[in-house]
Specification:
The complex is a heterodimer. Chain A is an alpha/beta fold. Chain A has eight helices and 18 strands. Chain A folds into two domains: 243 residues, P-loop containing nucleotide triphosphate hydrolases (Rossmann fold); 120 residues, abc- transporter (atp binding component) like domain (Coagulation Factor XIII, Chain A, domain 1). In chain A, helix 3 packs across helix 4 and helix 3 crosses helix 5. By secondary structure, chain B is an all-alpha fold. In chain B, helix 2 packs across helix 7 and helix 4 runs antiparallel to helix 7. The radius of gyration of chain B is 19 Å and the shape is globular. The chains are: A alpha/beta, B mainly alpha. The interface between A and B is medium-sized, with 32 and 29 residues.
Chain lengths: 394, 260
């Protein structure tokens, strides 16, 4: 393995949020008079204790929710902001696309802006002249290259920005959410360019919300959540981890939890047939659930129930121990009941499980957790809802 | 500080391109473009000549015009420098390059302008038969002048990132500075005024602009006023301000990205 192109060691980044947009002399003077320093401002840690390495020639995807710190991380790597703590070492020239066409001046022509952008990245004019035709060809704006860029359409602007950044041939390319802009043809060109870049053994760091694309072009993926590094590894694994978290968060938003409290459901574990905890099943798999409870007093003949709802929270199927004739003996203290649900007949998609425990006469609801547990059903028969045997005829 | 200079040398192409951009944008959409750099001082000299004659002010016109053209360079550079960082926020937050290039490019664009004005000025002085025998000093004075303006420009451009009030403050500072400097009056007005003690006269030249403008008059008008003795004081003050500006700018530049 060659020496790392990027090494990030214990990096944190703190932002100071001042109440107003920017400071004025008056507020500075007031702070001084009140001996507060900048104490009036609030702190915000955009990144906390980030450490990772990127090998030369590697493509690293960066994913995470909005506000997870992805763009901040890239701006630290690009060197436009200093880290508050920690150290960043990079080897080789860096070209950054933190925003397409960021350095363009509206009054200058496309040609002048290309040279300006090249100079910002430290590329000699001679080298830029050699690449100029390739840049214009890639951007596909040859007839407008001598017009001021203020007359460009946003698509042309973005294409020229991307063309400059990739054609300056850096060792390390940092790309922030480029795939989200431009039409499909341009997106395809970008991806081809990135592939070519990769084949030439360049290092790339890419931020994207397009999980399929980033999974296919990255060698590894880094997952950020709330400014912390929560995952780093094989693309499929980390993307799946991210999807699971997102589903859990979505479910948490729909979760309802109430009851009289004589018995509480203390935990629910969803497993596959092999006994591994998961939330993803194939059509026809059996879903194994263990419902752990805690009876705070002696309760006779409790009933345990469950329901399957679709993503919108509509109940598709519900059943309980009483209906199925499974008699749960008197409970007191901790215990658990098991449920094997399946082979499932659900259509592919996202579902949520709800669980409840109540008295045999249904008058007292001990504890009920609605929509608390997301599951995913995968399969190639995209019918809706729950399957029932079907016979079509003429 | 030395490595910062090396950085600038490495990015010198960016510096030239930004200087070009600043000049180009100043004359965008104007039919005469660059000629305005020549026309503006020409008109100024013409207007002063006509009005001073009409009003019957007895004033040394070459002295006045030299002072005003030299002052204009400083005033325009410092006005531009306020926006060197703040006005290029998109560049500063999105790309890494030596930030000092931004204020430097503002000052250098004004140097180009100033030199064009000086061509007009020198032609005028030749017509007026001024004593240009000391003109070899001109480049020396220019270097001190540019050093001084650069130092102050670095301070202003930094201050404006953190305190936007700087913009309003600077116009006051420039107005006061204009009258503290012998722009529209000769240095003798202060130096030969018995009301001012020697300490005040030294302070007068501790204002480095005084030395710069006196220097230009010495070089271009053969001026041998009483101030020549104090010129070194202004040189030292100019270089000190340049060093201070560099120091403050380099210390603060890491925080620009966060503040913008």
């Amino acid at each position: 393995m060659s020496a790392p192109a990027i090494r990030v060691e214990g990096v944190s980044k703190r932002f100071v949020l001042s109440g107003r947009g920017s400071r004025t002399l008056k507020s500075a003077a007031m702070d001084l008079v009140r001996f507060r320093g900048r104490g009036a401002a609030r702190e915000f840690w955009a990144l906390r204790d980030i450490a990772f390495e990127v090998s030369a020639g590697e493509t690293l995807g960066i994913i995470g929710a909005n506000g997870a710190g992805k763009s901040t991380l890239l701006s630290l790597l690009a060197g436009t902001r200093p880290p508050t703590t920690g150290r960043i070492t990079t080897r080789g020239t860096i070209s950054s696309l933190l925003e397409l066409g960021a350095g363009f001046h509206p009054e200058l022509t496309g040609r002048e802006n290309v040279y300006l952008a090249g100079a910002v990245m430290g590329i000699p004019r001679r080298a830029m002249r050699e690449r100029f035709d390739a840049i214009v060809a890639f951007a596909g704006i040859d007839q407008f290259i001598d017009q001021p860029v203020k007359h460009y359409s946003s698509g042309m602007y973005v294409r020229l920005g991307f063309a400059v950044a990739v054609e300056v041939n850096p060792d390390i390319l940092l790309i922030d959410e480029v795939l989200a802009v431009g039409d499909i043809a341009f997106q395809r060109k970008c991806i081809e360019k990135m592939d070519e870049f990769r084949r030439r053994g360049k290092t790339m760091l890419i931020i994207s919300h397009d999980l399929e694309t980033i999974q296919s072009i990255s060698d590894r993926i880094l997952l950020l959540a709330g400014g912390r590094l929560t995952g780093l590894g094989k693309p499929e694994t980390v993307v799946e981890q991210y999807r699971t978290t997102v589903r859990a968060e979505q479910a948490a938003a729909m979760r309802r939890d109430w009851g009289s409290g004589e018995v509480t459901i203390s935990g629910v574990t969803v497993r596959n047939a092999k006994g591994a905890a998961t939330d993803t099943f194939q059509q026809g798999d059996t879903i194994h659930v263990e419902i752990a409870f805690d009876a705070h007093q002696r309760v006779e003949d409790p009933v345990f129930g469950f329901a399957v709802s679709n993503q919108a929270g509509v109940k598709l199927y519900g059943n309980n121990t009483q209906i199925e004739g499974h008699h749960v003996a008197t409970i007191d203290g901790k215990g658990s009941v098991r449920l094997a649900l399946g082979p499932n007949t659900l259509g592919p998609g996202h579902y949520m499980l709800s669980f409840s425990t109540h008295s045999a006469d249904h008058k007292v609801n001990f504890h009920r957790i609605d929509n608390g547990f997301p599951i995913v059903i995968e399969g190639d028969r995209p019918f809706e809802g729950c399957y029932m045997p079907v016979r079509w005829g003429a | 500080m030395f490595s910062a200079l090396q950085d600038v040398v490495r990015h010198r192409e960016l510096l030239w391109i930004l200087v070009g951009r600043n000049l180009k944008i100043r004359y965008k959409n104007s039919a005469l473009g660059f000629f305005w750099s020549l026309l503006a001082p020409l008109f100024m000299i013409g207007i002063y000549t006509v009005f001073l004659k009409l009003m019957k002010f007895s004033m040394n016109l070459p002295m006045l015009v030299t002072g005003i053209i030299a002052w204009q360079f400083a005033a325009m550079s410092l006005g531009d420098s306020l926006h060197a960082i703040v006005g290029n926020a998109n560049l500063v937050t999105k790309s890494a390059f030596p930030r000092i290039i931004l204020p430097l490019s503002m000052v250098l664009a004004n140097v180009v302008n100033f030199l064009l004005s000086c061509i007009v000025l020198i032609v005028y002085l030749v017509v007026e038969r001024a004593d240009l025998s000391h003109a070899a000093w001109f480049p020396v004075v220019l270097i001190v002048h540019v050093s001084l303006v650069t130092g102050v420009a670095l301070l202003f451009s930094t201050a404006n990132v953190f305190f936007r009030d700087t913009e309003h403050l600077v116009s006051m500072i420039l107005l006061a500075w204009f009258f503290l400097t012998p722009v529209i009056y000769p240095d003798a007005l202060v130096l030969e005024n018995p009301a001012f003690p020697a300490a005040v006269q030294a302070l007068f030249f501790a204002n480095p602009m005084t030395g710069v403008i006196t220097g230009y008059r010495m070089a271009l008008l053969g001026w041998a006023g009483p101030g020549t003795a104090y010129l070194l004081l202004s040189v030292v003050a100019s270089l000190s301000i340049l060093l201070l500006g560099l120091f403050v700018f380099l210390c603060c530049q890491d925080r620009f990205g966060d503040e913008l």
